[in-house]
């Protein structure tokens, strides 16, 4: 049994560019809510694809969740949520029904064979920085020691469109970032 007293704040990035994108994001979040306590959910942002650009636009969001589970378990649940939505991993950066990334796990830096936290491309991706900054602008990137809002200002918001406001499954709200050590 997991110890709730040791719960960590985790930032998860959600993206979809196939089918009913909003519904894929909603169902992915709902799936994960069975395992994680959802603290806040960002607005929805539409962005062009990165990497393989000849594909439909993405709908993106970030959720802050709390869990005492270790990061590898959070990743496993994220992969299960993707699979439940029909995600096929046949092309790197290809179209997908649902993509769930573990962006931040408290203030920890983690490197394993299957997981790198903070997400290795977090600081260069406005499509996750914008929704993350909406929720926790002051959360310091554990490696770069810069607030999320500063990282977003550095990469800019060109091509990031807020398409649905604070009421898509739950109102986004600003929460305190995890205490820095």
Describe the protein in words.
With 181 residues, the protein is an alpha+beta fold. The protein has one domain (4-164): 7,8-Dihydro-6-hydroxymethylpterin-pyrophosphokinase HPPK (Alpha-Beta Plaits). It is built from 4 helices and 8 strands, in the order βαβββαβββααβ. The strands form 2 sheets. Strands 1, 2, 3, 4, 5 and 8 form a 6-stranded antiparallel sheet that branches. Strands 6-7 form a two-stranded antiparallel ribbon. It is globular and about 40 Å long.
Quick recap:
It contains four helices and eight strands; from the N terminus they run E-H-E-E-E-H-E-E-E-H-H-E.
Structurally, the number of domains stands at 1
Give the strand tally: 8
- Annotation field: number of helices: 4
Q: Identify the CATH class.
A: Alpha Beta
């Amino acid at each position: 049994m997991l110890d709730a007293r040791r719960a960590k704040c985790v930032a998860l990035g959600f993206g979809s560019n196939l089918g009913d994108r909003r519904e894929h994001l909603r169902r992915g979040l709902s799936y994960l809510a069975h395992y994680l306590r959802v603290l806040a959910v960002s607005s929805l942002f539409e962005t062009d694809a990165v990497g393989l650009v000849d594909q439909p636009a993405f709908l993106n969001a970030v959720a802050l969740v709390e869990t005492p589970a270790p990061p590898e378990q959070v990743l496993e649940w994220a992969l299960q949520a993707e699979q439940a939505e029909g995600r096929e991993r046949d092309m790197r950066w290809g179209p997908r029904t649902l993509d769930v990334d573990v962006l931040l796990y408290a203030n920890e830096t983690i490197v394993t064979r299957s997981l790198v936290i903070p997400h290795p491309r977090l600081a260069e991706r406005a499509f996750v920085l914008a929704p993350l900054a909406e929720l926790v602008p002051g959360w310091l990137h554990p490696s770069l020691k810069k607030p999320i809002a500063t990282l977003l200002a550095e990469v800019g918001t060109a091509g990031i469109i807020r398409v649905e406001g604070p009421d898509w499954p739950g109102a986004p709200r600003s929460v305190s970032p995890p205490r820095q050590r």
